[in-house]
Amino acid sequence: MNGATQGNQRACGEHCAMSAQPTLRVSAIDSHTGGEPTRVVIGGGPDLGTGPLSVRAAQLDREFADFRRAVVNEPRGNDVLVGAILVEPTLASCGAGVIFFNTVGTLGMCGHGTIGLMATLAHLGRAQPGPMDIETPVGVVTATLHDAHCVSVRNVPSFRHSKGVRVNVEGIGNVTGDVAWGGNWFFITEDHGHALELNQVERLTQITKQIRAALERDGVTGADGAIIDHIELNAPSPTAGVGGRNFILCPGGAYDRSPCGTGTSAKLACLFADGKLAEGQVWRQESIVGSVFEGSVEVHNGKIVPTIRGTAYVTAEAELILDPDDPFVHGFSAT
Ligand code: PYC
Predict the structure, then answer these.
(1) Known catalytic residue: 260?
(2) Counting C-beta atoms within 10 Å of the first and last residue's C-beta, which end of the chain has fewer, N or C?
């Protein structure tokens, strides 16, 4: 149920009984990584137990969907915002566990969010310069804090699942691209015929939604039937020294303002597989708003392991108030 169906707004002055439930206060720190926001819940979140993070993520998705929505939906958040809840890791080697989420569900991993998380922990004095292993629902990543804002993230192994997949997209025609994993599933294409410019985001959003619908219609998936919920358009960048610019449609329908850590990882895996990127070579990836991540890959036990580097800034320290008498306490979203 989204907030729109539950928000029976009362007119001012109508009698309203006070709820027996207490008001919930949630502590959160907001940041942005290359323009893409992250809201890290540091207190007041639900008890997700001590099981594997993938199980806790499924629990957050289903049993605590209202909490998830309250944190990221309007009016406290918006479709662009990625939420993160800090949890106890299961592995003693990890300094933190984290589950990322947006207005429609949980994410496997989030690169910009991990950079934002480390800037948040640095802001709180809970992270020192150096590496920290972080447990996510799809594996352990290593985030290295270089200074208060600059972070590199050694991501989960990334790979191309299928090359040269062709789909017929309504109003566009045939589009060919690769299906790749970088901690989330991506369809990556340069075959779109559009300029990746900020003033084109409406059209880019429309065509990436059409591509996603075509993939779903044709049953094109990631491994084990996984839904491809991120669509990545690539093009050369006009900026000297930058390998490419991207536009990425996220699951909730918003576009990533950052170059997308998991999307860049998936792209790096494809470039490496095509022999266009050598181990250790730096690839600079630009987002549609002009922010840049630096990425490279190493091969470890036969797997492609990307590292992404970017910067994040804390933008707010907040206490979210979830008043049970508020008809929009869990927010609303069009997606
Ligand atoms: O940076 O990996 C990322 C990401 C995923 C969704 C939004 N950002």
Answers:
(1) yes
(2) N
Cα–Cα distance measured from residue 220 to residue 37, given in angstroms and rounded to the nearest whole number: 30
Residue 132 bridge partners (DSSP): 143
Q: Which atom of ligand 1 has the smallest separation from the CA of 115?
A: 1
Q: For residue 251, what are its two tokens?
A: 């699951």
Which residue among the candidates 94, 110, 250, 270 is catalytic per the annotation? 110
Token couple for 210: 């059409």
Any residues with CB less than 8 A from the CB of 284 and at least 6 apart, and which? 237, 241, 242, 243, 292, 293, 294, 295
Residues in the chain: 335
Distance separating alpha carbons of residues 245 and 278, to the nearest angstrom: 19
- Give the position, in ligand 1's atom list, of the atom nearest the Cα of 259: 1
Residues with CB under 6 A from ligand 1: 36, 82, 107, 110-112, 184, 250, 256, 258, 260-262
Q: Tens-digit pLDDT profile for the chain (335 aa)? A: 343 334 445 566 554 567 778 999 999 999 999 999 999 999 999 999 999 999 999 999 999 999 999 999 999 999 999 999 999 999 999 999 999 999 999 999 999 999 999 999 999 999 999 999 999 999 999 999 999 999 999 999 999 999 999 999 988 999 999 999 999 999 999 999 999 999 999 999 999 999 999 999 999 999 999 999 999 999 999 999 999 999 999 999 999 999 999 999 999 999 999 999 999 999 999 999 999 999 999 999 999 999 999 999 999 999 999 999 999 999 998 87
pTM of the model: 0.95
Q: Distance from the CA of 109 to the center of ligand 1, in angstroms?
A: 7
